[in-house]
Amino acid sequence: MSHASVLFVCLVGFDPRTERRLATLLDDCSALNARWRVVKEGAPDLWIVDGANARGLGRGLVQVGEALRFRPAEMPHPVAFAEPLADSICTGHRFDATSMHALNVLLTQMGRWLHPKLVQQALVSELVANGASFTRSNVIEVQHHGRTLALLDFEGDTAVAPDAIPADLRRAHWALRARDAVFVPPGFRVASTEQVLWRFATRCDGHDLLPARYARLPVHLRRVPALPPRELTDRQLRIVRELAYGPRTIAELGDFTGAAVQALHRDLGALYLIGAITCDPGRSRAAREHRRAADVAGRVDPSLFGARPATLEELTAPGFSRG
């Protein structure tokens, strides 16, 4: 791969000085052949918690500071602790936050949880780099020496072998399979393909995913992303909600969000990759709703459509079409 996969890290409970020092270590870290980026928003791939600011409350519950409580075993991502750590917290994921060697050892040990996410990104990177074409009735199967490494279903889920690593994909055979001809082997790590595409687009460096026509044409909302709310930053939520009012140009979105053009291109590129936006008015959400209303009622009331922004509940409602 020409671009290393990126993993997001959230630093929890640290004072600003210690946080900056640990962020610098992560910037220089190359564990798992990944790039590590500290984030404040979006869905992180890993939490690192200040052990000096944490205490165990029993039954696996941890408190950080005065307000934050969680159970590491119930989090959607792995959790590690920087030493010193109270005896009331029992974990094997602890390290000296002043040592690059200790950080590398920790992240390498956590590879069983993190490698599948790196493989997911590498899968999409290969498809984007090679301009792969596919139909949504097919599933892409990635094999090496007859062993299935990954299955990618654009209408469903992406499944990755638990011991696969990105380097395996370079020697693999890629094939299109009929959806009813494949099954997910036991133990594979499964995530929705929309989430896999989104995470690639919001993490990748060196890929401009937004077609050039979006720089000159208004952007329409095609559908609401079918993603958990934690996956979107506040700015991305504002973009989707603004597009729910009606089409906007990139310049108008920049004025509304205050974001730089490069940041907007990344956000819109992610929305484009999952099929949530379009430059074709006929494929927009508003046009689809107009056609649906016309079919049902025999008439169209324009005031019913594009008159209000999408709410957070709408943004994540399971009943919305996936396109």
Describe this structure in words.
This protein has 9 helices and 15 strands. With 323 residues, it is of the alpha/beta class. The strands form 4 sheets. Strands 2-1-3-7-8 form a 5-stranded parallel beta sheet. It has a 5-stranded antiparallel beta sheet with strand order 12-9-10-11-13. The protein has a 3-stranded antiparallel beta sheet with strand order 4-5-6, with no helix packed on it. The protein starts with 5 loop residues before the first strand and ends in a 7-residue tail after the last helix.
Main features:
323 residues; alpha/beta; Rossmann fold; five-stranded parallel β-sheet; five-stranded antiparallel β-sheet; 15 strands; 32% helix; disordered C terminus
List the helices and strands and how they pair.
Layout: E1 6-12, H1 16-28, E2 35-38, E3 46-50, E4 54-58, E5 61-64, E6 68-70, E7 79-82, E8 94-95, H2 100-109, H3 111-129, E9 138-144, E10 147-153, E11 157-160, E12 173-178, E13 189-192, H4 193-203, E14 220-221, H5 234-245, H6 250-257, H7 261-273, E15 277-278, H8 285-297, H9 312-316
Parallel strand pairs: 1-2, 1-3, 3-7, 7-8
Antiparallel strand pairs: 4-5, 5-6, 9-10, 9-12, 10-11, 11-13, 14-15
